[in-house]
Amino acid sequence: xxxxxxxxxxxxxxxRNVLALMRHCGVEPRVIExxxxxxxxxxxxxxxxxxxxxxxxxxxxxxxxxxxxxxxxPHWSDEQLLDFIGxxxxxxxxxxxxxxxxTRLCRPSELVLDLLPEPPKKAFVKSDGEMVLDEQGRRxxxxxxxxxx
Length: 149
Description:
Layout: E1 5-8, H1 13-24, E2 30-33, H2 41-51, H3 78-87, E3 96-99, E4 102-105, E5 124-125, E6 131-133, H4 142-145
Parallel strand pairs: 1-2
Antiparallel strand pairs: 1-3, 3-4, 5-6
């Protein structure tokens, strides 16, 4: 079993880029399509604890029933919010990556590089054309590659 796990949504560009970056760095993670196989309440609590994030900090608003459920209201407890995520896994922001180096919500996608082995000495370009790693495998600052794709 892989030491690396990604909670992945294949319909999400950021999630696809993170998975591609992991593979670029020689890591073949266990891929959990969390919309098909949502984490249990205890697994979600463990992920939140490992990331040092609150339930609210992993709630996704765009493309979810967040607004119609009124989840912006402060009266919802963490337990209630966990219930909502259990009923609507799309509410969980993604991708979440678990590695021996830590657990992180990888938005933007290049945050995953902090959790991976040294990248190979070759370029990596995200699906939108933004260069993340140059030909020597060095990170490219976001502003340096802006507008390049």
